[in-house]
Inverse folding.
């Protein structure tokens, strides 16, 4: 599944300077109008903000012409309001008009010219026009360094804007150079106990994460939390941002025990600061819902995504990029739930909005298009999926960078699609390209690399290159074990892949040893997980067990047909049958029976079911096994059962 993260550039505060001298009272009134209009814009009342801005322009044009500096300030104010409204086309037009006036009347070294160019550079980044953004931000940095020196705070912040630009562009080497330089400038000018230092360090941490330097990213994020906590306390927006960033990093690293608690704490902070009808709160809900989807807790994610759609519709209406992103998130969830009809409807609705407002070159549009391609691939419409994947690849290569995980993943998807279509030569080219790019961006110790290796192993096996296939399967399995341990679902999948390879290549002894290991892990974990299944999950795992039995049975039948008798394999099949018939429904049914006879226990039962679900995912390998987390959850389950009376 393609995951594209869009870094959001934060608008810089408007600094007004370079005033023409005419009427002190007019300038004062104009400043007041500008501040009031921006106040309305920041509170999402864009109609009122634009109305006040227009009033200011009328006042100015009653005494000055459109070539005056004071009118340029009106253009700048209007450009910022449109930027906050996410009307980037009109923002660009207004800012270009302001910059032209300031350049002509004040020169390039004037503060208001520098700020206007910088804001336009950020707007171009939002529009995915990275080359224009780069040129403007580099111009600003060069002027600031020459005019104000290399320890100027604004110079350091511009370097950090370049860091953020190169991060989203996928030029990670440049991002790290400018990010590290910006942090150094801020330390020399302000020291480490400053909010601007925390902001620059946070963006450097994001660059480290995207570049695959996870330990450095973690160090940055932790220091950001320390600095913000010291300056403002934990009840602060930047502290909530830091918690979310750290949680997302730990999710990537497989350190799941703190992820939910960090997102929940960030949610609590933003709810207290901004209320439940704010974009800040909605952003936290998205982060939390994304975690629940990753953790297969779809029942928790769905209401959060629906709440986000409602919040954004109330704030921005339906014709807004954030509304489209919310539709796309819910569409992706429905795709995971195999509700393909409703998923496709939501994704198509999101794409129409994103293309109309942002264009096809925007990361949000590409993310939605990737989900749609996946839907067509699952439904067997392979030619349509091929067209969409290639469109994504073309846009990524033109507008972003090939040195980017998203580009690598779309190559892997195309390679897998071509394997399904029996276009094996093309499949190999794309799979190898994707593997190389993942290694260059993130290294080889990650699940993306392991899965790509497995795909290549499948292709080698299909083309009878058995030694290469075996090596790739084994390397993939080692990475899975290193990342998540032998209890993880990914490790079990790797064992299955390698065992089936040995079966096909008639290395039965090797196949049996792996199948025994797989069955021992699965049966042990499923026995434990069976205590925590609800009815839907019981049905799901009954089917999985039946499928496992059918696979083993088909292998046995094939061996018997070829006069290969193996009692160990028969024993594995027998164990699966026993577990399929008797070990999974007891706890869920027993608790439900008790609830049906007892009043007033609904809340306790719901809490128990939530704990059971966590244990279920822990034992089935959906999340990385952690012994202390296991003990904590079991203690909670025992305490709740005691309260219920079980």
């Amino acid at each position: 599944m393609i995951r594209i993260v869009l870094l959001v550039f934060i608008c810089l505060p408007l600094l007004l300077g370079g005033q023409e001298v005419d009427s002190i009272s007019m300038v004062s009134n104009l400043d007041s109008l500008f501040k009031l209009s921006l106040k309305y814009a920041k509170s999402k009342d864009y109609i009122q903000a634009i109305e006040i801005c227009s009033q200011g322009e009328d006042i100015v044009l009653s005494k000055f012409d459109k070539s005056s500096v004071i009118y340029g300030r009106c253009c700048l104010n209007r450009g910022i309001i449109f930027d906050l409204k996410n009307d980037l086309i009109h923002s660009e037009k207004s800012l270009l008009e302001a910059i032209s006036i300031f350049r002509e009347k004040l020169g390039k070294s004037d503060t208001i010219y520098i700020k206007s160019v910088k804001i336009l550079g950020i707007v171009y980044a939002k529009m995915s026009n990275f080359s224009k953004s780069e040129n403007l931000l580099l111009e600003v940095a060069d002027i600031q360094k020459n005019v104000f020196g290399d320890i100027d705070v604004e110079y350091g912040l511009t370097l950090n804007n370049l860091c953020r630009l190169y991060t989203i562009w996928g030029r990670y080497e440049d991002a790290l150079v400018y990010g590290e330089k910006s942090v150094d400038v801020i330390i020399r000018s302000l020291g480490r106990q400053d909010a601007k230092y925390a902001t620059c360090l946070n963006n450097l941490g994001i660059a480290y994460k995207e570049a695959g330097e996870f330990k450095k990213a973690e160090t940055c994020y932790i220091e950001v939390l320390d600095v913000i906590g010291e300056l403002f306390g934990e009840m602060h927006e930047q502290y909530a941002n830091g918690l979310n960033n750290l949680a997302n990093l730990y999710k990537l690293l497989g350190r799941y025990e703190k992820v939910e608690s960090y997102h929940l704490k960030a949610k609590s902070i933003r709810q207290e600061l901004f209320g439940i009808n704010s974009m800040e709160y909605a952003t936290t809900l998205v982060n939390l819902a994304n975690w629940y989807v990753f953790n297969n807790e779809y029942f928790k994610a769905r209401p959060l995504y629906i709440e986000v759609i409602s919040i954004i519709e109330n704030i921005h209406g339906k014709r807004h990029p954030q509304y489209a992103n919310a539709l796309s998130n819910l569409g992706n969830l429905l795709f995971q739930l195999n509700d393909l009809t409703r998923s496709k409807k939501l994704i198509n609705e999101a794409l129409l909005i994103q293309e109309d407002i942002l264009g096809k070159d925007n990361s949000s549009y590409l993310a939605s298009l990737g989900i749609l391609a996946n839907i067509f691939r699952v439904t067997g419409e392979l030619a349509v999926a091929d067209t969409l994947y290639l469109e994504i690849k073309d846009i990524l290569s033109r507008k972003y960078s090939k040195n980017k995980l998203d580009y690598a993943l779309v190559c892997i998807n195309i390679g897998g699609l071509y394997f399904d279509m029996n276009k094996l030569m093309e499949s190999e080219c794309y799979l190898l390209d994707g593997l190389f790019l993942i290694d260059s961006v993130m290294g080889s110790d990650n699940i993306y690399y392991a899965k790509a290796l497995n795909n290549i192993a499948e292709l080698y096996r299909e083309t009878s290159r058995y030694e290469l296939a075996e090596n790739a399967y084994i390397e993939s399995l080692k990475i899975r074990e290193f990342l998540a341990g032998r209890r993880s679902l990914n490790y079990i999948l790797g064992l299955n892949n390698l065992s089936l390879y040995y079966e096909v290549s008639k290395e039965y002894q090797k196949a049996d040893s792996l199948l025994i290991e797989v069955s021992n892990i699965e049966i042990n974990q499923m026995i434990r997980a069976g205590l925590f299944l609800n009815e839907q999950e019981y049905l799901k795992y009954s089917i999985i067990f039946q499928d496992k039995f059918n696979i083993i049975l088909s292998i046995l039948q094939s061996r018997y047909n070829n006069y290969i008798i193996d009692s160990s394999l028969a024993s594995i099949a027998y164990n699966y049958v026993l577990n399929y018939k008797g070990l999974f429904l007891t706890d869920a049914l027993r608790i439900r029976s008790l609830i049906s006879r007892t009043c007033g226990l609904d809340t306790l039962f719901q809490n128990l079911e939530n704990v059971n679900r966590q244990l279920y995912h822990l034992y089935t390998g959906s999340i990385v096994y952690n012994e202390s987390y296991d003990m904590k959850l079991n203690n909670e389950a025992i305490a709740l059962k005691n309260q219920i009376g079980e």
About this structure: The radius of gyration is 28 Å. The longest helix spans residues 535-561.
